[in-house]
Amino acid sequence: MPIQNHEIDYKIYGEELQFVEIELDPHETVIGEPGSFMMMDNDIEMKTLFGDGSQSSQQGGLLGKLMSAGKRLLVGENLFMTAFTNTGQGKKTISFAAPYTGKIIPLDLSKYNGKIIAQKDAFLCAAKGVSVGIEFQRKLGTGIFGGEGFIMEKLEGDGMAFVHAGGYVIEKELKTGELLKIDTGCVVAYTAGIDFDIEFIRGIRNFMFGGEGLFFAILRGPGKVWIQSLPISRLAGRLMQYATVTRKEEGSILGGLGNLLDGSE
Predict the structure, then answer these.
(1) How open is the CA angle 7-192-57, to the nearest 5 degrees?
(2) DSSP of 17-77, one letter per residue?
(3) pLDDT greater than 80 at residue 147
(4) Average pLDDT of the segment spanning 107-136
(5) Helix, strand or coil, per DSSP, at residue 143
(6) Is 102 left (phi over 0), alpha (psi -120 to 50) or beta?
(7) Number of Cβ within a 10 Å radius of residue 237
């Protein structure tokens, strides 16, 4: 079967704060989330798309486009995407930057049966033709209690897609029936063969004093899972914690000097 999506080459730069540089041949196009663009060569044309620009999102007339784009609001994404096309004669490059510290994960969808399920807000950019939709978890318990794991992004096609994860990223290959328990926020993405469920943490002391959530994400193989060490929700919570703390020495005779002495500034 011929490849339906645009074929693009890429290179990832950086360690903790990364960006991906994508090389476009003439007439090749890459799509990206608004706000992810970093820089590009001359002769790359930028165009705003309603939806993701894939063939599936353009079917069904105006109503079909509205439904396709509207679903993206459920995963916290924008109704629009930006397409960047090489209108010049030679190869051109365009770069997309990670939104916060972490890793950019390249995903060749053709190697994963054309489908990857990713956490909300994980999508960064992709070759034109990749469909970016939503994936509802099938089990009622997951929908009621699963929190951020209930509605996820669905990347479909046979081209390259790039997602972003926080902190360190590890890949795990689960065999048939093999089970892995993960914090719901630490799940970045997984292949379509993975069964996703949630499990209540047993023991009242565990969830009252353990400092963790009430539920585990349960992933059962076969398939591949990408896991992040620093979910954005955890990072934001830490920042808010420090932002709202009133330091004891504020207003004291030491003031800012005390912060310098104890390494807080």
Answers:
(1) 55
(2) S-EEEEEE-TT-EEEE-TT-EEEE-TTEEEEEEES---HHHHTTHHHHHHHHHHHGGGGT-
(3) no
(4) 91
(5) helix
(6) left
(7) 10
Question: 209 — phi, psi (to 5°)?
Answer: -125, 0
Q: Which residues contact 254 (CB under 8 A, 6 or more apart)?
A: 261
- Identify whether the C-beta of residue 81 lies closer than 8 Å to the C-beta of residue 33: yes
Task: For the chain, give every domain's residue range.
Answer: 9-230
What pLDDT is recorded for position 68?
A: 55
> Residue 22 is encoded by which pair of tokens?
């994508």
Q: What pTM value is reported for the model?
A: 0.78
The one-letter code for the residue type at 189 is A
9-230: CATH topology is Double-stranded beta-helix (3.60.160)
Give the separation between CA 152 and CA 18, rounded to whole angstroms: 23
Q: Which of 67-71, 204-208, 217-221 has the highest mean pLDDT?
A: 217-221
The amino acid occupying position 95 is: S
pLDDT at 192 over 70: yes
Are the beta carbons of 139 and 197 closer than 8 angstroms? yes
